[in-house]
Amino acid sequence: MRKLAYLLFVAALAAGGWWAWRQQEAAALPDYIATSNGRLEMNRIDVATLYPGRIRAVHVNEGDEVAKDAVLVELASDQSAGQLAAARAATEGAEDTVQRAQAGIKQAKQTVARAEAEIAAYRQQQKVAKLELDNARQMRRDNLISASEYSKREADYQRAVASVKAAEAARAEAQAAVAQVEAQAKEAAAGVRRAKATADTAAAADADMTVRSPLAARVEYRLVEPGNVVGAGSRVISLLDPGDISMNLFLPNAAMAPLQTGDEARIVLDGINAVFPATISYIASDAQFTPKAVETPNEREKLMYKIKLKIPPDTAKRYNRLLKGGMTGNGYVRTDRSQPWPITLNTHLPPQ
């Protein structure tokens, strides 16, 4: 019993000494410096799947550093693979249809060309037959040829005229065939575009079965294991952005009023001999009850304003192995920007 009482006394004495030291430290600061305790927070990114499937492989472990676009998780889906195969087959079929249509266009145009050549030849024959008929008509008037000879010349001319008309009809039919086949070719080309669009969509869906890191980050939680079946939008990996580190402070109205976003700030972490630069990235518009973890010099100050101090991304990334979410410390801001920082709060970074 005495031992327990002694331990409680020592603990109370240590807590009192620590509190007195913190109050003395705060009192030593200029009156234009406001401070509050807080914890480091790292921005968390929950990486999720776009489509349902079975987890084929997980390529990272908790605590791993991953690069941007690094493969985190692979999913397997028979439906996705089947859709991609079907889309590619449809594309190949549509391309074959286009090739056949183009061959049909070529053949139809050749038929038109032959018909035009025949028309030219038959017109020449018609011209000759017309001359011979005119000559025979004159000779018949002069009784230089018989009636049967004249009838023969007239029949030759009529055959020539009929041949020209038949060739012109064949050309019109061939031209109609060309127009029809060209329309079929256009429809086939549109089918190719539709099939390729479907194939691209299926390929994108299949590629999305591989989950990649959206940024260079640290793995916080591995939420799935191989063999798990997940739905669309299921979280699979939780990442921490090493370039997005901040600390929330809670200050009374008097200290908060002069502050603006973008103002300089400082962060001092427990157990680290360093002063990290920071800026005010957020100031709450409404007061809230003081969280229990926040120490206030005046117990009557129940309502406080939340502000967020953010360490510059390049500094945060440089010390990404040192800075961790949950580390405790103090944040400092100047209520008068025209005043210099105290020497003890000049930026001082730890050795790397």
From TrEMBL:
Alphabetically ordered keywords of this record: Coiled coil
Chain segments annotated as coiled-coil in the UniProt record: 98-139
Protein name listed in UniProt: Putative efflux pump membrane fusion protein
GO cellular component, as recorded: plasma membrane
